[in-house]
Design goal:
- By secondary structure, this protein is of the alpha/beta class.
- 31% of the residues lie in helices and 17% in strands.
- The strands form five sheets. It has an eight-stranded parallel beta sheet. It has a three-stranded antiparallel beta sheet with strand order 9-13-12, with no helix packed on it.
- Helix 4 links the parallel strand 6 and strand 7.
- Helix 1 packs parallel to helix 2 and helix 5 runs parallel beside helix 6.
Length: 470
């Protein structure tokens, strides 16, 4: 394995190892601070991070306002306070000498307001903004306002080209790097386009080369590309290092920092990572964002799959094959479905899935009365954690804060379930029944001798291990 040399990023020399940002209290100031102190770039998440009481305990993000709009303001206040808190923690750990980035999702609720306020209140503590989950055109404008570097997360040369032409060309000097996030291997939300097949992964090398070729058109020969998703042992990426075709490349690690002493996730979550098998991480499209996402295939994901399978098309009037009447809701208002579907519906009812919920696509989803009650309550409790949410029909972009579509019961409240996983990660049952994001290579924890006998390294030990090439 050839030597791993420092790389110029954001105006300074750092090891080419970037901690991937994981939202809702998972990548925090402690993990980011230790990663940066080890010589890489630490990243804390500004997506609903924790703030703390006088005793150092996380303050529960509970919502008291009556309306969604008012709860949305509560959420923004929590996010700003938490992100400033995490920035300070990271800065204190590094003594101000390490490189710290803040990660945001462009499609999170109040994204621009949050990052603007955080950069204002945490001046000098944050050196870069990493941003994905959408097309963050205004990212460069925000970076310019506060004189910090910005790092857009994209999954294709085409996406970067659009961002550059529309906005980034006006702030080229602050473009610290471009994160290429592999849409088939990365954890969390994935940037698969409608033209890409989620079942047919593509080799990242040609895609990253195409990105570099596009960047060179704009004179960005020395701007690093940060490879994210699927990176484990650097010896498997040796042909990328010091490769003149690709130019300067760094590597982002999102899943591996989960299994460190400084990682804030619960012990049960850490032990679960050590037992995952290949295929246990599932690429799905249940997220209320509408994006694909990668998560551990637990009871939570399986219930969502089964919920969507118990789905029948209907019409308000008898038309075509929809001739069989079926009573919906407490008042048994008639809708019409195909006779064969009526048989399926009656079968599900007999199994206890006796409540129906309408979707925006003129289908009925069959669930238990308990699940129906939970879904309706979660929709009513929406606090606008996304800019647009298909689960609750919230939209911060509309005058009435609604998408104008029916709320979709095939999805879920992502804020609720990620908060549960983040703060109850010592409970195996919680991990089975909530969303647990992960990269697709997480099964390698069980196969990598570095983790033999349940060894959990410090961040410093992990960075040193990565630097060896293994």
């Amino acid at each position: 394995m050839q030597a791993i040399n420092a790389i110029r990023m954001g105006g300074v020399d750092v090891l080419p190892f970037v901690e991937g940002g994981k939202g809702v209290a998972i990548s925090n100031g402690v993990s980011a601070g230790h990663w940066a102190r080890a010589g890489g770039v630490g990243t804390f998440s500004a997506v609903n991070p924790d703030s703390y009481d006088e005793d150092g305990n996380p303050i529960p993000q509970t919502y008291h306002a009556r309306t969604r709009r008012e709860r949305h303001e509560e959420l923004i206040a929590y996010a700003i306070k938490g992100a400033v808190t995490q920035a300070r923690r990271a800065f204190d750990i590094t003594g101000g000498k390490g490189r710290i980035h803040a990660n945001i999702l462009w499609e999170m609720g109040g994204a621009e307001r949050i990052i603007d306020a955080v950069l204002e209140q945490a001046k000098g503590l944050i050196h870069g903004i990493t941003c994905g989950a959408g097309m963050p055109y205004r990212l460069s404008e925000i970076a310019t306002k506060f004189n910090v570097h910005y790092y857009p997360i994209i999954s294709s040369a085409r996406a970067f080209n659009a961002l550059w032409r529309r906005a980034y060309s006006k702030a080229a000097s602050l473009l610290g790097g471009v994160v290429y996030e592999d849409p088939w291997l990365a954890g969390g939300h994935n940037g698969l386009s409608n033209s890409e097949d989620p079942t047919k992964p593509e080799d990242p090398y040609p895609r990253v080369k195409a990105l570099r070729d596009q960047m060179r058109v704009y004179g960005l020969n020395d701007t690093p590309i940060i490879m994210a998703g699927g990176v484990w042992w650097l010896e498997e990426w040796e042909h990328w290092i010091d490769n003149p075709e690709l130019g300067p490349v760094a590597f982002q690690f999102g899943t591996r920092p989960l299994l460190t002493q400084e990682s804030p996730i619960g012990n049960a979550w850490k032990q679960r990572l050590l037992t995952l098998k290949e295929g246990d991480v599932f690429l799905n499209r249940f997220s209320p964002t509408g994006f694909y996402s990668s998560a551990i295939n637990n009871n939570f994901i399986q219930e969502l799959r089964q919920r969507s399978d118990r789905q029948i098309a209907y019409s308000a009037e008898p038309v075509g094959e929809h001739t069989a009447p079926y009573g919906v809701g407490p008042r048994k208002r008639l809708v019409y479905m195909a006779p064969a579907d009526l048989e399926r519906a009656l079968g599900w009812e007999a199994q206890g899935f006796s409540d129906t919920l309408r979707t925006p696509d003129n289908t009925l989803v069959f669930v238990t009365p308990e699940k129906a009650q939970e879904i309706v309550k979660d929709q009513a409790d929406c606090m606008g954690c996304l800019s647009t949410c298909r689960f609750s029909n919230w939209s911060q972009h509309e005058a009435d804060f609604s998408t104008g579509k029916r709320a979709d019961p095939r999805s879920f409240c992502i804020q609720k379930t990620l908060q549960a996983a983040a703060h109850q990660g010592d409970n195996p049952e919680t991990l089975e029944n909530n969303l647990v994001f992960s990269g697709h290579n997480a099964f390698r924890f069980a196969k990598d001798p570095f983790y033999s006998n349940g060894f959990i390294p410090t961040v410093k030990q992990l960075v040193e291990r990565i630097a060896t090439g293994r």
